[in-house]
Design brief:
Number of helices: 11
Helix content: 25-40%
Distance between the termini: 29 Å
Shape: globular
Radius of gyration: 19 Å
Length: about 325
């Protein structure tokens, strides 16, 4: 194992957890605003109020007695996503890509029965996946359809984009690609591939899996260096608009691209992780400090995006 000194990390502009928590999360995120992003249902309602596009909500399961009769509410749904409203790190998310009667098929091909689905919903309500173990609610929403631009780049699941937004400016971005190891979820800790993206163009800069550099997708063999996210400025504007929507100064915005509906806000995170620096192979601190040094903030999201694209070009 190779080690690197703290001084070297500082010279590289790497942001550590303490610096993130004290200087950015603690300073720029008011505690009263956390419930807006810690609860996916509240985020979805808020996004609708601000005309920020999100996946369609089918229904919410709030009480254990509703679980017994869930088959009636699922009638007519062939594919859907089940999520804990207060979950984190992708835990508790269940994707059903197709079904045959009371048999529900995951993107991996594994099948679940109606009792399995009831058990999963019951666990969500009991708080098994919630941030602090408190009782939760289950969200059932529309299934995202893979955009053609990502064919071969994601396996058994839908990729998503994480954009770090600081004081309304997008400062760093990565694409997270689902793998068999991650069970079709775009979660780096579970084995998804993280692809660092050039803020100016949306093109691949670097890629990692399990914190190690990779050149191709481990399941499909597709070369990652060829990735170029389409409609990139619109995606950054969508991320930047979340600053006005939530009032949070430092956050992670998670966005998916649906085949027919285009970019959609998936969720927001008031405590975004640090692995995005590994995916980009560079530290985020110089960019954050640059934004802090600005005398005045540009009022329009489009203007902030243009500034970030010009300033942080990879």
């Amino acid at each position: 194992m190779k080690w690197i000194s703290p001084a070297r990390l500082q010279n590289l502009g790497i942001q550590g957890m303490n610096r993130r928590n004290l200087d950015f999360i603690g300073r720029y995120n008011e505690r009263r605003l956390y419930p807006l992003v810690d609860d996916k249902l509240k985020t979805k309602i808020l996004a609708n109020q601000y005309a920020v596009p999100v996946a369609q909500l089918h229904f919410v399961v709030r009480h254990q007695h509703e679980v017994r009769h869930i088959e009636g509410r699922l009638e007519g749904l062939q594919g859907f996503a089940v999520k804990p409203a207060k979950g984190s790190g992708g835990k508790g998310i269940l994707i059903v890509s197709e079904r045959s009667g009371d048999t529900f098929v995951k993107p991996s091909g594994n099948c679940l029965g109606l009792d399995d689905l009831r058990r999963h919903l019951s666990n969500i309500l009991a708080g098994l996946y919630s941030l602090s173990g408190v009782p939760d609610v289950a969200i059932v929403e529309d299934l995202i359809e893979l955009d053609d631009c990502f064919q071969g780049y994601s396996h058994e699941g839908i990729p998503d984009l994480r954009v770090i937004v600081f004081r309304g400016y997008p400062v760093m971005a990565m694409l997270r690609l689902a793998t068999h190891a991650s069970d079709g979820k775009a979660n780096l800790h579970q084995g998804a591939v993280g692809v660092g993206l050039d803020i100016a163009t949306g093109r691949c800069l670097n890629a990692v899996q399990f914190h190690r550099p990779v050149q191709v997708h481990p399941d499909t063999g597709q070369k990652l260096k060829d990735i170029h996210v389409p409609d990139w400025p619109s995606i950054l504007v969508l991320a930047a608009r979340c600053y006005e929507m939530t009032g949070l100064g430092y956050m992670g915005t998670d966005i998916v691209i649906d085949r027919s509906r285009g970019p959609l806000l998936l969720e927001l995170n008031a405590r975004p992780g640090l692995a995005i620096q590994l995916a980009n192979n560079q530290g985020i601190l110089p960019r954050l400090e640059h934004i802090e040094s600005l005398a005045g903030l540009r009022p329009e999201p489009e203007a902030r995006v243009r500034y970030a694209m010009e300033t942080f070009r990879g």
